[in-house]
Design brief:
With 189 residues, the protein is an all-alpha fold. The protein folds into 3 domains: 73 residues, no CATH class; 40 residues; 44 residues.
Protein backbone atom coordinates (compact mmCIF):
# COMPACT_ATOMS: atom_id res chain seq x y z
CA UNK A 1 0.00 0.00 0.00
CA UNK A 2 1.38 3.43 -0.90
CA UNK A 3 0.63 6.60 1.03
CA UNK A 4 0.39 10.25 -0.02
CA UNK A 5 3.84 11.01 1.41
CA UNK A 6 5.26 8.40 -1.04
CA UNK A 7 5.97 5.93 1.75
CA UNK A 8 4.92 2.35 1.17
CA UNK A 9 3.89 -0.46 3.47
CA UNK A 10 3.49 -4.07 2.38
CA UNK A 11 0.42 -5.38 4.12
CA UNK A 12 -1.08 -8.82 4.41
CA UNK A 13 -4.55 -9.28 2.98
CA UNK A 14 -5.90 -9.92 6.49
CA UNK A 15 -4.59 -6.54 7.69
CA UNK A 16 -6.22 -4.77 4.74
CA UNK A 17 -9.52 -6.42 5.58
CA UNK A 18 -9.22 -5.82 9.34
CA UNK A 19 -8.76 -2.09 8.79
CA UNK A 20 -11.16 -1.80 5.83
CA UNK A 21 -8.46 -0.05 3.82
CA UNK A 22 -9.18 1.29 0.34
CA UNK A 23 -7.43 3.67 -2.10
CA UNK A 24 -7.75 7.32 -1.11
CA UNK A 25 -8.74 6.53 2.47
CA UNK A 26 -7.86 9.22 5.01
CA UNK A 27 -6.32 8.06 8.29
CA UNK A 28 -5.88 9.76 11.63
CA UNK A 29 -2.54 9.52 13.40
CA UNK A 30 -4.06 6.98 15.84
CA UNK A 31 -5.35 4.84 12.96
CA UNK A 32 -1.91 5.01 11.34
CA UNK A 33 -0.21 3.92 14.57
CA UNK A 34 -2.72 1.08 15.00
CA UNK A 35 -2.10 0.00 11.38
CA UNK A 36 1.67 -0.02 11.92
CA UNK A 37 1.32 -2.00 15.15
CA UNK A 38 -0.97 -4.53 13.50
CA UNK A 39 1.36 -4.80 10.51
CA UNK A 40 4.31 -5.43 12.82
CA UNK A 41 2.39 -8.14 14.71
CA UNK A 42 1.25 -9.88 11.52
CA UNK A 43 4.73 -9.69 9.98
CA UNK A 44 6.30 -11.30 13.06
CA UNK A 45 3.64 -14.04 13.14
CA UNK A 46 4.04 -14.91 9.48
CA UNK A 47 7.84 -14.98 9.75
CA UNK A 48 7.54 -17.17 12.87
CA UNK A 49 5.33 -19.61 10.96
CA UNK A 50 7.90 -19.82 8.15
CA UNK A 51 10.76 -20.45 10.58
CA UNK A 52 8.89 -23.06 12.64
CA UNK A 53 7.74 -24.90 9.52
CA UNK A 54 11.38 -25.24 8.41
CA UNK A 55 13.00 -26.49 11.62
CA UNK A 56 12.55 -27.47 15.25
CA UNK A 57 13.27 -24.43 17.33
CA UNK A 58 12.98 -23.25 20.92
CA UNK A 59 10.94 -20.29 22.07
CA UNK A 60 14.03 -18.23 22.90
CA UNK A 61 15.74 -19.09 19.62
CA UNK A 62 12.64 -18.16 17.61
CA UNK A 63 12.32 -14.83 19.39
CA UNK A 64 16.02 -14.15 18.84
CA UNK A 65 15.78 -15.01 15.13
CA UNK A 66 12.72 -12.83 14.62
CA UNK A 67 14.45 -9.82 16.16
CA UNK A 68 17.60 -10.63 14.18
CA UNK A 69 15.50 -10.61 10.98
CA UNK A 70 14.27 -7.10 11.80
CA UNK A 71 11.04 -7.70 13.68
CA UNK A 72 10.12 -5.44 16.59
CA UNK A 73 11.09 -7.14 19.91
CA UNK A 74 7.55 -6.81 21.33
CA UNK A 75 6.04 -8.21 18.12
CA UNK A 76 8.54 -11.06 18.21
CA UNK A 77 7.59 -11.90 21.80
CA UNK A 78 3.88 -11.78 20.93
CA UNK A 79 4.43 -14.01 17.87
CA UNK A 80 6.26 -16.56 20.01
CA UNK A 81 3.45 -16.52 22.58
CA UNK A 82 0.90 -16.91 19.76
CA UNK A 83 2.81 -19.91 18.34
CA UNK A 84 2.99 -21.44 21.83
CA UNK A 85 -0.76 -20.99 22.37
CA UNK A 86 -1.35 -22.81 19.08
CA UNK A 87 0.93 -25.58 20.42
CA UNK A 88 3.33 -25.13 17.51
CA UNK A 89 6.27 -24.50 19.85
CA UNK A 90 7.28 -26.93 22.57
CA UNK A 91 10.75 -26.55 24.08
CA UNK A 92 10.71 -29.99 25.72
CA UNK A 93 9.77 -31.72 22.47
CA UNK A 94 12.45 -29.74 20.63
CA UNK A 95 15.01 -30.77 23.25
CA UNK A 96 14.04 -34.43 22.78
CA UNK A 97 14.45 -34.10 19.01
CA UNK A 98 17.88 -32.51 19.38
CA UNK A 99 19.09 -35.22 21.77
CA UNK A 100 17.69 -37.99 19.55
CA UNK A 101 19.59 -36.50 16.61
CA UNK A 102 22.81 -36.38 18.66
CA UNK A 103 22.38 -40.01 19.71
CA UNK A 104 21.77 -41.07 16.10
CA UNK A 105 24.98 -39.33 15.05
CA UNK A 106 26.96 -41.06 17.81
CA UNK A 107 27.69 -37.87 19.73
CA UNK A 108 28.60 -37.91 23.40
CA UNK A 109 26.69 -36.15 26.16
CA UNK A 110 28.95 -33.08 26.01
CA UNK A 111 28.09 -32.53 22.33
CA UNK A 112 24.38 -33.03 23.07
CA UNK A 113 24.61 -30.37 25.81
CA UNK A 114 26.34 -28.06 23.37
CA UNK A 115 23.55 -28.58 20.83
CA UNK A 116 20.91 -27.81 23.46
CA UNK A 117 22.79 -24.65 24.43
CA UNK A 118 23.18 -23.55 20.81
CA UNK A 119 19.44 -23.98 20.20
CA UNK A 120 18.70 -21.95 23.35
CA UNK A 121 16.79 -24.73 25.06
CA UNK A 122 16.08 -23.73 28.69
CA UNK A 123 18.23 -25.74 31.10
CA UNK A 124 15.13 -26.91 32.97
CA UNK A 125 14.58 -29.44 30.15
CA UNK A 126 18.18 -30.68 29.90
CA UNK A 127 18.12 -33.10 32.82
CA UNK A 128 15.00 -34.94 31.61
CA UNK A 129 16.14 -35.34 28.01
CA UNK A 130 19.71 -36.31 28.94
CA UNK A 131 18.72 -38.70 31.77
CA UNK A 132 18.46 -41.74 29.49
CA UNK A 133 21.39 -40.88 27.23
CA UNK A 134 22.74 -44.26 26.11
CA UNK A 135 26.27 -45.44 26.76
CA UNK A 136 28.39 -44.56 23.74
CA UNK A 137 31.14 -47.12 24.39
CA UNK A 138 30.28 -49.24 21.36
CA UNK A 139 30.21 -46.17 19.12
CA UNK A 140 33.65 -45.14 20.42
CA UNK A 141 35.01 -48.67 19.85
CA UNK A 142 33.59 -48.75 16.30
CA UNK A 143 35.04 -45.31 15.56
CA UNK A 144 38.45 -46.46 16.81
CA UNK A 145 38.36 -49.59 14.64
CA UNK A 146 37.34 -47.58 11.57
CA UNK A 147 39.71 -44.64 11.99
CA UNK A 148 42.87 -46.02 13.55
CA UNK A 149 45.30 -47.76 11.22
CA UNK A 150 46.54 -51.25 12.18
CA UNK A 151 50.00 -49.92 13.06
CA UNK A 152 48.85 -46.74 14.81
CA UNK A 153 51.38 -44.45 16.41
CA UNK A 154 50.84 -41.82 19.10
CA UNK A 155 50.22 -39.09 16.50
CA UNK A 156 47.46 -41.10 14.77
CA UNK A 157 45.93 -41.98 18.14
CA UNK A 158 45.88 -38.31 19.19
CA UNK A 159 44.12 -37.37 15.96
CA UNK A 160 41.39 -39.96 16.57
CA UNK A 161 41.09 -39.01 20.26
CA UNK A 162 40.66 -35.35 19.28
CA UNK A 163 37.96 -36.28 16.76
CA UNK A 164 36.05 -38.22 19.42
CA UNK A 165 36.40 -35.38 21.94
CA UNK A 166 34.96 -32.97 19.33
CA UNK A 167 32.02 -35.36 19.08
CA UNK A 168 31.41 -34.90 22.80
CA UNK A 169 32.97 -38.03 24.28
CA UNK A 170 35.05 -37.83 27.44
CA UNK A 171 38.75 -38.59 27.38
CA UNK A 172 38.24 -41.23 30.09
CA UNK A 173 35.64 -43.11 28.02
CA UNK A 174 37.87 -42.93 24.95
CA UNK A 175 40.86 -44.17 26.91
CA UNK A 176 38.88 -47.10 28.36
CA UNK A 177 37.80 -48.13 24.86
CA UNK A 178 41.35 -47.79 23.54
CA UNK A 179 42.54 -50.06 26.34
CA UNK A 180 39.74 -52.52 25.67
CA UNK A 181 40.44 -52.52 21.93
CA UNK A 182 44.15 -52.92 22.76
CA UNK A 183 45.13 -49.78 20.82
CA UNK A 184 48.71 -48.69 21.42
CA UNK A 185 50.66 -50.29 24.21
CA UNK A 186 52.59 -47.07 24.88
CA UNK A 187 51.29 -43.92 26.55
CA UNK A 188 49.53 -41.60 24.14
CA UNK A 189 48.20 -38.01 23.95
Amino acid sequence: MQFSDASALRLYKQTLQDFGLYPGMEMTRQEWENLNASHSQMSAKMRAVRIVSATSISRRELEHRLVQKGEDPDSAKNAVNWMTELKLLDDENTAQQIVASCIAKGYGVARAKQALYEKRIPKEYWQNVLADYPDQSEYIAKFLREHLPEEADAKAAKKVIDALIRRGHSYGAIRRMMDREDVLEEEYG
